[in-house]
Amino acid sequence: MPELMTRKRLFRWECLFLLICVVDSTPPEYPIKCSSKRSNCTITNSYGAFPDRSVCRAAEVVYPTTEEELVAVVAQATTEKRKMKVATRYSHSIPKLVCPDGQDGLLISTKYLNRTVKIDASTMTMSVESGATLRQVIDEAAKTGLALPYAPYWWGLTVGGLLATGAHGSSLWGKGSSVHEYVLELRIVTPAGPKEGYAKVRTLGNSHPDLRAAKVSLGVLGVISQVTLRLQPIFKRSISYLVASDTDLEDQAISFGNQHEFADITWYPSQRKAVYRIDDRVSSNASGNGLYNFIGFRSTSSLVLAMIRSLEETEESTSNADGKCRNSRLTTSTLTTGAFGLTNDGTTFKDYPVVGYHNRLQASGACLDGLEDARITVCPWDPRVKGQFFHQTTISIGLSNVKNFIQDVQKLIELEPKAMCGLELYNGILMRYVKASSAYLGKQEDAMDFDITYYRSTDPMTPRLYEDIIEEVEQLALFKYGGLPHWGKNRNLAFDGVIRKYENARAFLRVKELYDPLGLFSSEWTDQVLGLKGGVSIVKEGCALEGLCICSQDIHCAPKKGYFCRPGKVYNDARVCTRVSSHK
Ligand SMILES: Cc1cc2nc3c(=O)[nH]c(=O)nc-3n(C[C@H](O)[C@H](O)[C@H](O)COP(=O)(O)OP(=O)(O)OC[C@H]3O[C@@H](n4cnc5c(N)ncnc54)[C@H](O)[C@@H]3O)c2cc1C
Ligand SMILES: *[C@@H]1O[C@H](CO)[C@@H](O)[C@H](O)[C@H]1NC(C)=O
Ligand SMILES: *[C@@H]1O[C@H](CO)[C@@H](O)[C@H](O)[C@H]1NC(C)=O
Ligand SMILES: *[C@@H]1O[C@H](CO)[C@@H](O)[C@H](O)[C@H]1NC(C)=O
Predict the structure, then answer these.
(1) 133 lines ligand 3 (CB under 6 A)
(2) Which ligand is located closest to the Cα atom of residue 287?
(3) Of these four, 206, 267, 300, 432, which has the most CB atoms within 10 Å of its CB?
């Protein structure tokens, strides 16, 4: 009974968590820490943990404020044959893209390289330095009556970082939802020979062939200093969320993307529900001043975060699937009732459709704001407090395979109905449209991107509830359906052999060889991902639990805890860590 009471109270807390938006908050921690002013540093990502949980070191960090300073920095490091990596204000990528090898690496931060260089209303173009955040681009463009048509949903990304990893929003219209499709010109600083002073600025215009390499580069070609984007006149959108059963999702998934310009779908497989975002451009005289302030990106009380995390940890350790399912239904209903953070006028939600200007609807990130040192509220994943800690599996599957993939996931749910309540706690599977790209490392065909977030234990050796089912979904997407992992998310196994999925990989590598022949901007991780050096798998005890490997032996799972390496239930070629009850 007392336990029941606590649980009830926690549920109420969770409701609060989802509804409260506190103004006083702590901005995310700066990802670079140095023992003396700018030397002997470590760098991490915004979650405070890379997939292998290693700590990345760099000998030094520099903060160029102009392109000239940038050239000087790259020239100096090139003469010293020093490894370099570009670091951004928040460092949002999950994989170890930002780590320079060895102990002597140099981090080049774009924190102060964030000016808007030029906005031209007549040509509808905007030039920014690469450290400018998405929020800045959206805000500045809007002031001139312009808009970036498609973008990721999160304000905190920088232009350099989101291009490097191929970040996108959701659309099958026009050139699609990836920001790099709207790059008109890009300036990149690369190493050079002595005759050119060891560094040079390369200007890649729209028709320059190397732009196909540079617009999605994983950061291995050099430092992008400036980017010119093609914008559109600002417009209004009309958004409605429609909650429906997922029984015909496999058929709807494709047609829906053709029906609505900004369509996306959030899928809750265990609840057998899908939420369709009906989202289109409307005439700019349509009335409404709607705002999107996504609930999951708001500042959240650290007390509440700790309680929610504790509850989830308890449910995990007691294998309480029913508890997770109850909780996920509550989370989903709270989110849908709250219109996911949409309001008709900036303060209250009355009804759909929500109509408003694109710049107020396309992205959000309220938790980025805040007072330093007021440890009251934070972004929900802030590693300084006990809060969300998760894996993210984000894979795009060619449209022709989407139907079969969805059906396979539904078969898994038929076998294990409660298996996906855990990821529904993190707002289900976000499904977004992306189009084939001319970028060498961009999408190979029109695709649907499946974004799955789920519990990660603080202990790397602890398996999670329905570990096997989520691993099977991951392997279905990657191997049976040949999906492409998002460069800035995912666990190591997603990148094993990934480069073979890119038809123009060699063309990319030729540009890399030309721009940075010594590989100063490359690291062990990028060499592995690009197929230049071994694989990305780390094979050791328990490695499959963290996605560092695909299990091939029981020891890669957690045999002492009853988890053994077994074939998948729907996809026989999958190898997943399955809880075998006779060993309980
Ligand atoms: C809350 C949240 C929401 C997200 N939402 C989306 C989304 O809606 N859609 C989506 O596609 N992704 C999304 N992402 C993932 C995100 O797109 C990637 O993680 C993104 O690359 C991170 O950008 P960043 O500016 O933090 O770059 P970082 O992670 O710091 O850097 C990424 C890579 O780019 C390189 N790099 C950065 N700047 C430069 C430069 N100037 N020149 C050369 N190389 C450079 C770095 O060296 C590194 O290799 C989200 C991430 C978070 C945390
Ligand atoms: C570098 O920093 C670490 C702590 O992060 C410290 O232990 C070490 O002594 C420092 N080394 C130097 C040379 O300052
Ligand atoms: C650029 O970044 C600095 C440091 O984060 C910040 O203080 C400044 O406001 C930013 N400039 C713009 C135009 O956003
Ligand atoms: C919006 O303007 C168009 C002409 O530009 C007009 O035809 C239409 O009726 C207007 N709609 C509203 C809702 O005022």
Answers:
(1) no
(2) 4
(3) 300
